[in-house]
Amino acid sequence: MHDEMDVFSFRNDRDPEKGDLLISEPYLPDDNFSRTVILLAEHNEEGSLGFVLNKPSGVKLSEVLPDLENVDAPLFYGGPVQRDTLHFIHCCEDYLTDSVEIAKGIFWGGDFHELIHRIKNNLVSESDFKFFIGYSGWAAGQLKNELKVNSWIVTRNFATQQVFDPEPALLWKSTLENLGGKYKLFASFPQDPRMN
User: Fold this and answer.
1) What is the pLDDT of residues 76-94, one digit of tens each?
2) What is the pLDDT of residues 56-82, one digit of tens each?
């Protein structure tokens, strides 16, 4: 019986760090985070901050940034905190002034006007950046408590292109499948547990 329980346990093998992905358990009862993959941009004793990678807002970047009138890149829902703020991550080959590296080759923020200039002049492609409305945040100790109750899987096993995929409908499933083993089983769980 113990082994059977382990198969469906979301035990985390390590503590989260900046640059990790948080993958929600299949039936997380919070609509904000149902079947989400979050990139942690910050994690320390004061709390954690990240961006949901797989929830397009239904709005195009050009609709909120008039300077980018010809850019059809989607604007993503970063999380439920401060939905009136705009954030971005990027993987620009040339370092963007004041950006912070959160994982190898993945940066958070930086000179906004510099990025807009690069986008307008086709110096970067749509697969080099991602914009978010709002963010996901945890107070000190809050994420640790959520990990104790198996709400999230922590991993650094992902490719940069997965983070910047403009149509990440399958990101939650593919990220779990890439982890293999019992996580592959989680990926095939139905969205509604009553449907099996």
Assistant:
1) 999 999 999 999 999 987 7
2) 999 999 999 988 988 889 999 999 999
Report helix, strand or coil for 86: strand
**pTM value?**
0.90
pLDDT band at 95 (very low <50, low <70, confident <90, very high): confident
Both tokens of 141, joined, read: 């100790």
Separation CA 106–CA 99 (nearest Å): 10
Topology (CATH) of 2-159: VC0467-like (3.40.1740)
Give yes or no for a contact between 46 and 140, defined as CB atoms under 8 angstroms apart.
yes
Contacts of 149 (CB under 8 A, 6+ apart): none
Rg of the chain's alpha carbons, rounded to an integer? 17
Cα 195 to Cα 171, 172, 190: the distances in Å are: 22, 19, 6
> Are 193 and 27 in contact, with CB atoms under 8 Å apart?
yes
Report the pLDDT value the prediction gives residue 182, as an integer from 0 to 100.
Answer: 85
Hey, what are 144's tokens? 């640790």
Backbone angles phi, psi at 180, to 5 degrees: 70, -170
Burial of 15 (0-12, 13-18, 19+ CB in 10 A): exposed
d(CA 99, CA 110): 4
